[in-house]
Specification:
8 strands, 8-stranded mixed beta sheet, 3 helices, alpha+beta
Length: about 180
């Protein structure tokens, strides 16, 4: 097996969680470590460990980031992101799994602050509404207000694929 530190790309497992009774809403986490935390919401999930399949990583991150044990039903999207030379970030294949619908009132437990850290990794879990409607109540949180454009597009296409029993092959959140 090759040395994981020499890999040219990385794999991640991400999770789409839809809200029961509000199928136009998706659950996301907001990390504290981002350059623009207010617009950094993203799907639950993260990078695989060496030799770990993306589905296993998605379930592991789901439990660690939310305290939830939900069945990952099927792969709904793959999003390839390019390497970024300026940050040293490697190219990534993001495998996105549908975790179905979560009932209101199910507790979300964010991970505690790690020893020696000033703040926890995640600021919050929130439900974001995919599109604006005149009937939305005041204070509705919208996907476009809390995500970067590519991230928002990734989330929208993954949710659409989950709802339609389809599949989305994406490049930086945009269909190929």
């Amino acid at each position: 097996m090759s040395d994981p530190t020499q890999m040219t790309h990385r794999l991640s497992g991400l999770v789409v969680i839809r809200r029961a009774g509000h199928l136009g809403q998706v659950g996301v986490v907001q990390p504290n470590y981002a350059d623009d935390p207010e617009r950094s919401c993203q799907l639950v999930g993260g990078q695989t460990e060496p030799g770990e399949p993306p589905r296993v990583a998605a379930a592991r991150h789901l439990l660690r980031e939310t305290g939830l044990r939900l069945p990952l039903m099927r792969l709904v999207a793959v999003d390839y992101t390019d390497a970024e030379e300026t940050t040293g970030r490697k190219a990534c294949q993001n495998h996105i799994y549908d975790a179905g619908v979560l009932e209101d009132g199910v507790p979300i437990m964010l991970p505690p602050k790690a020893p020696g850290e000033k703040q926890p990794e995640l600021a919050c879990f929130r439900w974001l509404t995919l599109g604006r409607r005149p009937s939305d109540p005041p204070g509705t949180d919208y996907l476009t207000d809390y995500t970067q454009p590519g991230q928002g597009s990734r989330i929208r296409h993954a949710v659409d694929a989950a709802v339609s029993d389809g599949f989305a092959e994406l490049h930086r959140g945009v269909p190929w």
